[in-house]
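Students often ask why inverse folding is considered easier than folding. One informal answer: many sequences map to the same fold, so there is more than one right answer. In these notes we will look at a single instance of the problem. The structure comes first.
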């Protein structure tokens, strides 16, 4: 199989292209405008099933043949989609069992998109036929660079309650637990008389009188993830067989809860994802987090941003427009965080359909003078100068543990506090590093932690076999481990780890949590840390020390004077436990101190709201400096180093200036 950097040996630039919505004359106009704008890659046929297979078994590839030829003649490569993201009308009309069933037992109707059930054998059979046809037809087409499988799996429909899904769930459980006795034990079914004698007695967790069985619900979430993943694998297998050299991917969406992207990424040759931060949120640090997560899914391999918008989307209540320069600026932030491609939804703004008011690279005016096209063209010409960045890696010494199964489990009902938000906790810790321009990778607790000097595990409620030992080894070897409240509580079936909270982590943390004290929304307390007072909210752990030392205390309430945060020397490293949700100043101070101890610093000192990101290859290092301010900034460069400003194509030393909403890319 070709490496992605061989298939696309430049910064990919282009977007979703839906020529089937336009006439042939427009295709020529498209290709010419693409060429002028520096477009080198487009995703074609994502929603084309209905025009490729017009009736069952009646295929028409003539239009796609022409489109691919035209694109190739203009030097534009293609991520060819497998067109399975939306089924044609004839399929749904003829085979009702293609539809997914909603929680009320109702089938999703035809007329929108993505209404299929992943467990429908009819859908799977039709998919296999179409994918094989496409692969066989275009296997040798010179425009084909990569396969774009389906589109944003589960974006609209992440659950299905059909009889097929029920049967598949039972099979999935048999596979996982082997005996019904084992399942009863894992799900704790002696509670509320939920014991099963036979697999056939097991139903999907829907329309229940009250609380569900947490083990069952967690497995249903895993099962739906696996059902969708299986669809992807069905397509991938055919593509690998017919075109073994062509890389494959599907497009992810941010930190999307229903799908465990760490799991999926193993089967993708490149991670690609679709990003639509809301311009009203200001400087998008959560966007940066999403990039870092995407880069981490394949252990640092650069990702491709498969979709973003030039100006505005059409699916928010009010769709704010990115002001001039923002699309360019955010694109460079993407590249700085590990992006090897900047692609858009979509090339040409649609005339009809639900997305006709969604921005595009060419707007309705079709004018080369439009702001969207001018900005696209500028970016396209600049990206050509960045070939040396392709494949470059982000050096990171800090990792944050992020785990989808933990996310599912910690936010399921019946907890001491039922408004805990896992992502919010992750973001609170991430922001400390983001603000300091310290690169962060995301990992799972089972991953190799040896590349890192500091590992943060916020709210890691679920501890799986081997996780605690992995943390112990990391700390023993000199690492700094930070863990926050409500961690180490449950196993992978959402059963409590007995032996005093957080049982598996007591050894590495040197403490025991005697009790949880969740706070009402309006309630806050104060903790004292280094003689300073800071607010805490949400939760207080009542901590009993077992070797660890208290570094912060609660100031009030019946647990006044009890430790709120602790530190413990373990092997040649240390562990820090934060038993509450402290205000940001506390995290900045504490984590800032830990970074200092480890001498982990940003690549350059920078004023606020300036990102300094580093990406290295064997040959070069690069600094990507992204100025989100409305004014110019100046940064001191490292002494004695001569940098090449890649966009300006000039050498600089000592200082660098980045204008308002501007970027500098320095190679050294
Ligand atoms: C994505 C999707 C595209 C398009 C876009 C609009 O989620 O993959 O097909 O709908 O959103 O923002």
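Output (designed amino acids):
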């Amino acid at each position: 199989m070709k490496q992605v950097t061989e298939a696309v040996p430049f910064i990919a630039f282009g977007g979703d292209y839906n020529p089937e919505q336009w006439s042939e004359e427009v295709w020529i106009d498209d290709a010419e405008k693409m060429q002028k704008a520096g477009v080198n890659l487009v995703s074609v046929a994502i929603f084309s099933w209905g025009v490729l297979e017009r009736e069952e078994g009646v295929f028409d590839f003539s239009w796609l043949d022409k489109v691919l030829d035209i694109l190739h003649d203009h030097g534009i490569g293609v991520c060819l989609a497998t067109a399975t993201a939306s089924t044609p009308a004839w399929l749904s009309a003829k085979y009702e069992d293609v539809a997914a069933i909603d929680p009320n037992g109702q089938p999703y109707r035809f007329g929108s998109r993505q209404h299929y059930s992943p467990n429908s054998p009819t859908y799977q059979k039709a998919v296999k036929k179409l994918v094989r046809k496409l692969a066989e037809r275009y296997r040798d087409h010179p425009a084909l660079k990569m396969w774009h499988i389906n589109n944003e799996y589960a974006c609209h429909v992440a659950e299905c309650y059909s009889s097929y899904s029920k049967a598949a769930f039972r099979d999935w459980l048999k596979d996982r637990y082997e005996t019904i006795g084992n399942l009863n034990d894992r799900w704790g079914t002696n509670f509320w008389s939920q014991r099963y004698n036979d697999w056939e007695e097991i139903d999907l967790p829907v329309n229940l009188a009250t609380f569900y069985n947490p083990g069952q619900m967690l497995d249903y979430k895993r099962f739906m993830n696996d059902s969708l993943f299986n669809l992807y694998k069905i397509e991938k297998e055919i593509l690998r067989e017919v075109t073994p050299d062509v890389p494959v991917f599907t497009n992810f969406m941010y930190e999307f809860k229903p799908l465990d992207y760490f799991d999926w990424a193993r089967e993708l040759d490149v991670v690609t994802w679709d990003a639509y931060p809301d311009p009203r949120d200001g400087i998008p640090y959560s966007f940066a987090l999403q990039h870092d997560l995407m880069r981490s899914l394949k252990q640092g391999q650069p990702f491709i941003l498969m979709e973003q918008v030039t100006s505005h989307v059409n699916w928010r209540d009010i769709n704010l427009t990115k002001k001039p320069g923002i699309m360019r600026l955010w694109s460079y932030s993407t590249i700085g965080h590990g992006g090897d491609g900047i692609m858009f939804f979509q090339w040409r703004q649609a005339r009809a359909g639900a997305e006709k008011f969604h921005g595009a690279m060419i707007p309705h005016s079709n004018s080369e003078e439009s702001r969207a096209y001018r900005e696209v063209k500028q970016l396209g010409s600049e990206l050509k100068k960045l070939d040396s960045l392709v494949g470059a890696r982000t050096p990171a010494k800090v990792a944050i543990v992020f785990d989808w199964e933990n996310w599912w489990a910690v936010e399921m009902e019946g907890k001491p506090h039922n408004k805990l938000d896992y992502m919010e906790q992750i973001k609170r810790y991430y922001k400390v590093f983001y603000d300091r321009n310290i690169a962060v990778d995301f990992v799972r607790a089972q991953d190799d932690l040896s590349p890192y000097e500091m590992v943060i595990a916020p709210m890691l409620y679920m501890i799986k076999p081997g996780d605690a030992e992995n943390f112990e080894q990391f700390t023993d070897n000199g690492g700094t481990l930070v863990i926050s409240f409500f961690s180490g509580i449950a196993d992978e079936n959402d059963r409590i780890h007995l032996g005093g909270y957080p049982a598996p982590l007591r050894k590495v943390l040197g403490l025991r949590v005697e009790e949880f004290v969740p706070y009402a929304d309006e309630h806050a307390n104060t903790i004292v840390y280094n003689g300073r007072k800071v607010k805490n909210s949400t939760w207080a752990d009542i901590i009993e020390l077992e070797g660890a030392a208290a570094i912060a205390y609660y100031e009030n309430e019946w647990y006044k004077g009890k430790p709120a945060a602790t530190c413990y020397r373990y092997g040649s490293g240390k562990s820090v436990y934060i038993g509450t949700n402290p205000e940001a100043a506390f995290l900045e101070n504490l984590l800032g101190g830990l970074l200092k101890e480890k001498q982990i610093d940003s690549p350059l000192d920078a004023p606020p709201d300036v990102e300094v990101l580093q990406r290295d290859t064997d040959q070069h290092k690069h600094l990507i400096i992204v100025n989100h301010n409305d004014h110019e900034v100046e940064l001191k460069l490292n002494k004695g180093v001569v940098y090449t400003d890649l966009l300006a194509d000039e050498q600089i030393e000592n200082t660098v200036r980045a204008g308002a909403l501007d970027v500098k890319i320095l190679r050294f």
